[in-house]
Model the fold of this input.
Amino acid sequence: MGDVFGAAREVMNLSQMYKYPENIDALAEIVTARWPSLRGVKLLWGAGSMGVLANLARVFCGGSVNVLGMTPQFLPGLMEFALAGAKIVTLSPRPDRFRVDAKDLSAALEEDTTLLYLDNPNNPTGAVMPLDEVAALAEACARQGALLLVDEAYADYLDDAESAFNLEMSNVICLRTLSKGYGMAGLRVGYAAVRDPELYRVCEDCGLLYAISGVSAALAAKFLPRVDFSAIREKVRYLKSRVTEFISDYDAFTIADTHPAIPIFLLTWKQGGNLYEKLMEAGIRAEAGHFFELNDCSVRLRVPSEELLEDFFRLWRGLFGER
Done:
């Protein structure tokens, strides 16, 4: 924590705080250095990925806009478009593993589809659509005259080669946040690559001025290069394997298809009942299924940190017994 406070003191020059935030070229250079394919591509900034989504919804607003999504996925992302007046259509996958692939979504595209919203990795399942499938989906969208919005909030846990930032297609908008893998949710920094110049111009005209504070931009630029994602990914894989193998020994539960390096997964209680309330009362934090338009039998779980792993096992055994 000393490094954080020291950096804050370094960038928070109170004598300069009267100024409006300057441009964030330093932060943009760090992002584009990570993905060389973004050189020359305009970045749209916002207060976290939600800020970017809200700005995009302001562009794609009105009753003539049709957005395709799926259930389950990050519902607030779709809600931003719904609140802007767009018509929302969702595709529901098979309820056993909650698996949706590119072919399913491509088949659901309509002639009047304006935008397809894909969170990849999926929230809440933690499942990942491979980049070649995302590319095929983008091509299907292009044939329909639709945009593909890829929300990669959890994608820092994947290899950079799997990012949609690598797709040099004008109808693809890919967005990320510093809230998940970087663990900097309080800074409220999100960004999206918008390859179509005209679309970027409209987004910039409709966007909020000074969406990111000067302090947040300076702190992010200072700390982004320090994060070792190879170590983080290895740790998450280890912890997630411990947790999912432990729960899999209990026949009463089903874990939806998920990626081993993503720190969230969707759990369903086969026998029914309000699993969310049961877990929360026992001290196991979870996200209720209704947040993702699922019933009370399903919850999203986040992989506990290593120091809390044995506590998780102890609390679970207290609820459901030994196996």
